[in-house]
Design goal:
The complex is a heterodimer of chains A (about 160) and B (about 325).
Chain A: E1 4-10, E2 13-19, H1 25-32, E3 51-54, E4 57-60, E5 72-75, H2 88-95, H3 105-118, H4 124-131, H5 141-154
Chain B: E1 5-8, H1 11-16, E2 24-26, H2 32-37, E3 45-48, E4 57-60, E5 63-67, H3 72-76, H4 79-84, H5 86-93, H6 98-103, H7 106-110, H8 117-120, H9 162-169, E6 172-177, E7 180-185, E8 208-214, E9 222-228, E10 239-248, E11 251-260, H10 270-275, H11 283-293, H12 305-322
Parallel strand pairs in B: 1-3, 2-3
Antiparallel strand pairs in B: 4-5, 5-8, 6-7, 6-8, 9-10, 10-11
Helix pairs in contact in B: 5-9, 11-12
The complex binds flavin-adenine dinucleotide, iron/sulfur cluster and FE2/S2 (inorganic) cluster (FES) (2 copies).
């Protein structure tokens, strides 16, 4: 079989896997690891539903080949909370009513975490631009922006 | 996606020289993987360059050396880019989304392929994807297509924002070719389609971009990157303008204007720029420069609007550059 070996950490756990090189990170998470919190929207980098964190940076997992992530620290929405406690970002999304169907929410939350890690937001326009890589079919943008702003201010 | 062989390159592999010639280079994959999913690109083997030692930004008195593997986001937010090359910071941050910029590399950005709809649609004729099949865009829906430097074979544009700023800055590209580093001026990296639209650029198979060299002059006082698109963010440019100026007592001491979204490469004409050295930095002169820069522009139906749009955008960008916000 045509596979390649790759090592990474997934939500804090070290993983070593021999994988077909055409497997994307998104398909690996959903179909191999059954981590279905990360969603498949467009599969082409155009919606942000598949956003996860690699070394603290938000990326579209649908366009990453898993083999290319050797040595990476991968965090999905399943890894942002601790045990039974929601992460502060998740809590703020609930408090601000920042979703309707919830399909885009895991990606939105990963984007807010990466936004805080990067720490380069200086205006409302920059905050909106940062979050614009996550489309919301329910158009819950008003409260998503409100939640994102609170998360950034409180980080 | 069609199955392929995958190799993760190490620095030692590079000295062998042969690995790259028969493989397609994988950097961030944000363009290549997408094209492979559509079946537009079907490489037999991928060479992943992610572990090669080109992930640094180095400062020197000759300017800034951007590693090909530095991400677009790390480049835009680098302190020296923000302070000395704000036009580059602005152009990169106007592109794609925060997630894509976090993954996209500088080398990959330079060699990203056109967003022509027919190039992506493997059921349609396209000389770039399949030489000799024809161009579906010329008589088709060509709202996003070129108005300058087109040919009877192809009217595609180069979609990068970063490249428009790099053209204005007159950057240089370092390329590893058969073990030797060659230096290519930015305006010679990309090409016009002519009768070989399948060639986006002047590199040879096996060439590896290692760095982008920014010159010492960054035009940090008078600059603008103006991008006009269908929505405020997360959309490619319909037209864009990178404008850099040096002004002395109201007169133009240096002027650089590069256009995006209008041609198969960033559009910049040094002869036209030179004509305006010493002239007053006025709206009238900016209008006259705009006319000369887009002389010969031709629309193909649904993109006719770009001619007047880009003219206005050039003047606005230069006026904004005089007083950057
Ligand atoms: C939805 C979406 C929206 C986007 N919007 C914009 C936008 O508004 N503006 C914009 O400018 N861009 C935009 N992009 C494009 C994005 O900027 C590119 O996909 C990205 O820059 C490519 O970089 P990469 O490292 O992922 O390249 P890859 O996909 O890995 O490679 C791209 C090409 O470059 C070659 N290559 C890569 N590195 C090297 C090297 N060092 N030497 C030689 N060859 C190399 C590869 O072989 C391949 O042919 C968008 C992309 C998507 C998916
Ligand atoms: S414009 Fe170029 S890329 Fe588009 S269909 Fe015509 S030949 Fe293909
Ligand atoms: S599924 Fe990855 S961006 Fe839409
Ligand atoms: S809450 Fe439904 S897609 Fe965003």
């Amino acid at each position: 079989m045509n596979t390649n070996l790759v090592h990474f950490t997934l939500n804090g756990e070290p993983v070593e896997v021999a994988i077909e090189p055409w497997t994307t990170l998104l398909d690996y998470l959903r179909y191999h690891q059954k981590l279905v919190g990360t969603k498949k929207g467009c599969d082409h980098g155009q919606c942000g539903a598949c956003t996860v964190l690699i070394d603290g940076n938000s990326v579209n997992s649908c366009l990453c080949l898993l083999v290319s992530l050797d040595g990476a620290e991968i965090t999905t929405i399943e890894g942002v909370a601790t045990a039974d406690n929601l992460s502060p970002e998740q809590q703020i999304f609930i408090e601000e009513d920042a979703y309707q169907c919830g399909f885009c929410t895991p990606g939105q939350i990963c984007s807010t975490i990466a936004m805080c890690n990067r720490g380069e937001i200086n205006s409302e326009e920059e905050l909106k631009d940062w979050m614009s890589g996550n489309l919301c079919r329910c158009a819950a943008y008003k409260n998503i922006t409100k939640a994102a702003r609170r998360i950034y201010e409180e980080s | 996606m069609k199955p392929f062989q995958y190799t993760r390159l190490s620095t030692e592999d590079l000295s062998l020289g042969t690995t790259l010639r028969d493989s397609t280079i994988l950097a961030g994959g944000t363009n290549l993987v997408d094209l492979m999913k559509y079946g537009v690109e079907e490489p037999d083997s991928l060479a992943d360059i992610g572990k090669l030692p080109y992930a640094q930004i180095e400062e020197s008195d000759k300017g800034l050396l951007l590693g090909a593997l530095v991400t677009n986001a790390d480049t835009a937010y680098h302190a020296a880019v923000k302070s000395t090359y704000p036009v580059l910071n602005k152009a990169i941050l106007a592109a794609a989304s925060s997630q894509l910029r976090n993954r996209a590399t500088n080398g990959g950005n330079l060699l990203q392929r056109t967003r022509c709809y027919y190039f992506y649609d493997t059921t349609m004729p396209c000389n770039k994807r399949e030489p000799g099949t024809g161009c579906a865009a010329i008589k088709g829906f060509n709202r996003i297509h070129a108005i300058l430097g087109t040919s009877a074979s192809c009217i595609a544009t180069h979609p990068s924002d970063m490249c428009v700023a790099l053209a204005a800055l007159e950057a240089k590209v370092h390329v590893l070719r058969k073990g030797e580093t060659i230096v290519i001026p930015f305006d010679q990296l990309h090409r016009l389609p002519g009768d070989q639209p399948e060639k986006d650029h002047n590199l040879e198979p096996g060439d590896l971009i290692t760095h982008i060299q920014l010159p010492a002059e960054g035009f940090s006082e008078h600059f603008e990157y103006l991008k006009i698109r269908d929505r405020e963010s997360y959309a490619f440019a319909l037209v864009s303008v990178a404008a850099c100026l040096k002004v002395s007592q109201g007169k133009i001491a240096d002027i650089r204007v590069a256009l995006g979204g209008v041609a198969h490469k960033p559009w910049k004409l040094k002869e036209v720029e030179k004509d305006f050295f010493g002239k007053e930095a006025s709206t009238e002169n900016f209008q006259s420069l705009a006319e000369q820069l887009i002389q010969g522009a031709q629309g193909f139906g649904t993109n006719d609007f770009k001619i007047s749009l880009v003219k206005g955008a050039i003047v606005r960008a230069l006026n904004n550059a005089l007083n950057p916000s």
